[in-house]
Each structure stands twice: as structure tokens, then as C-alpha cells.
């Protein structure tokens, strides 16, 4: 007989486990299907020296808050993995590891038919908790890079020692690209960094972590419907900063002073192994700095409104500017032996055969609730607020969905787990 559950949750990261906690607490029959292992992306998709960029005190899952001795610090990759694994163990989450979901479609009589690597299942309701970053994105330009050059996506980067000796080209300055460039630089590699349009933020300002200020200001609580950009915020690039060594700014200008070589947007890779760039470097650096200083302006205004006593701090002054922007890089002549592509991911929902997507392939939803009865998303970037998809607000998003689901699944609420 086909196995049936009231709810099937797809994905056993922090989002799927948060939903499982609420369903367990409400006594709802469910199973969590995970194609790999619990929280594996934290271990398999991060480099050796990875740290969170948000403070540990923001790591709060339903019924499970950070309980270490460094709340203002930044957990390493292994500690985050352990944090999520311990969460699953804390309430006996019904996770089935190494079970891949092959397809989900609406069943003729209602509910959903779920085809998996372990056989067919059905469910009254399905929660898709696989995040928004599925397939590593590498541009077609990479096909023209000489075969002698090692190329990897940022999700496969582990350490400088794992790459061939020589210089490294990092393409992209989002959170991963900027931090990987820093990691390589600190290991003594000659780094060539292609700067994109990602903004940056100061780690500390006026005596506190900027995340703490933004938390107090309610920035993480503002819903996407209240933002001027509306749904376009879901395509926003996160600000680059680091939690390494207790946390600090990532200042690409300072890296340049210290020998890192910076370039504007990559436009072409010639058959001769020569890369060509648009003269956008200075513009990118200025724009990133402007965002950082704008956040400081908001913090200053908040401090003034609230009448808070906070130390005054000098504003940032650019420590370096390009005298002229490089337009070419000969990989062989420069001794570059590796390229790290840090240009993001593509969504892949081909297995979800339900009409809940817009014209660009984005899940169409309101706070995770779709137009298809009983189908929900959880853990998406900007699902509702800036913190959605991260530890900052996934607990709140999971609770909201659990409340939406409860009447339909006839949930009862026993003693709290």
C-alpha cells in the first residue's frame, strides 16, 4: 500500500526541522524527507574556515536557542552543523535521510502524490523546505577558460590548500565571494577578485555589532509587502561582512592596499586565456561603501530618536582608489591556476509539478502560503522579512505556517515538547 502522511516536509535543514517541531508539538502525523543527511549543507556546502556572519544570539529555532558561552561571537561551520543536528535530536524529528523526492503533484482525489527514491507516498499537505539555492551557477564564459585552469563553484571551495599552487581568480563579491577571497588572501595566495554589485555593511558601529542595532530598530521585522521595492527584494544580494576572528569589516580597498588585485565586471574570456573587464570597479566600490554609510546614517538617526548614550565614531574614509582600472588579465602570465565562481545559484523546482510559479520560475506565495490548497514553502530568502531563510526569522515563519495549516489538518495541541 502507498504510504500516507498528513503532512510531508521536504528538506531537513533548519527550516524543515522548525516546521517538524511545530507539527510534533501539535500532534500532527508527518515525516521529513531529506535526500542527503540532516543539515548536510552546513557541512558539505561551506569552506573549512567558514563562520556565520550574524551573531550567535540570533540563532533561535523553535524550542532551541543558542546555548553556548559566546552569544556575541560567530559559530564556525562545524558548530552550526552540530547546533542543527542537536535540534533534530532534541525532539526526535521524524527525518528519513537519503530519501530523494522525485516528483510532487496534486492527486486526483485531493492532497498530493509524492514519488520518492524509497517509493510512492501521499500526503494531505506538503511543505517545501529546500531553500532558494539549488544548482550552482557557472556562466557560459567558463567554457572558454583554458583547460589547464582548475575551476570550481564557491559551494565546492574548501581551503587554499585544496587548490593547486598559484594565484586564484575569484569572480563575485557577495558574501561567499568576499569571504573566500579573504580566506585565500590570509593564506598568502595572490588573489584576483572580480567585484560585483553586492553591498557591504560595517561589522561594528558606535559600540555594537550593526546586526544588534538593526535588530533593535526592527529592520528584521519589516515584511516584504512594506518595502518600496516589493517582491523585487527577493532578488537582493546580501551585504558582505565576516564573523571571522570575532568579526570585522570586509574592506576590498584595504585588500587592494595589501596586494589583492581588483577588477570590474568580467565581460569576456578570449581563446588566448586573456580575460577582459568593464571599467566598473570604482563604481562598485563606491556603491558598496554608500550602502554601508547609509546604514550608519540610519543607526545615527535611531540613536538620536531614542536618546541613547552611544560612543561617537569617525566615519569611514576610503583607504584606496584605483589609479586606473585594469581591462585585461592574462591568466597564464599572472600565474593564475584556479578560478572560484561565486556568482550564486539557480532555482530548480522541476520536480514540483504544481502550478504555483510565476513567469520567472519563482514560487508565487504569500508568507509561504500558495494558491494550491495544502502546499507551502518555508525557508525562502525574503519569504516574509529580511530574516526569512536564515536563523533570524525562520522560527517565526514556521510558526505562521503551522497556524495556517492547523485547521486543515485537525491539529491538536498536547503538552509542549
From TrEMBL:
InterPro entries for the chain: Auxin_biosynth/cation_transpt (IPR050982), CHP04046_FMN-dependent (IPR024000), FAD/NAD-bd_sf (IPR036188)
Give the UniProt keywords, A-Z.
Oxidoreductase
UniProt xrefs under Pfam families: Pyr_redox_3 (PF13738)
The family database entries (PANTHER family) matched by this protein are listed as: FLAVIN-BINDING MONOOXYGENASE-LIKE PROTEIN (AFU_ORTHOLOGUE AFUA_4G09220), FLAVIN-CONTAINING MONOOXYGENASE
Name it: Flavoprotein involved in K+ transport
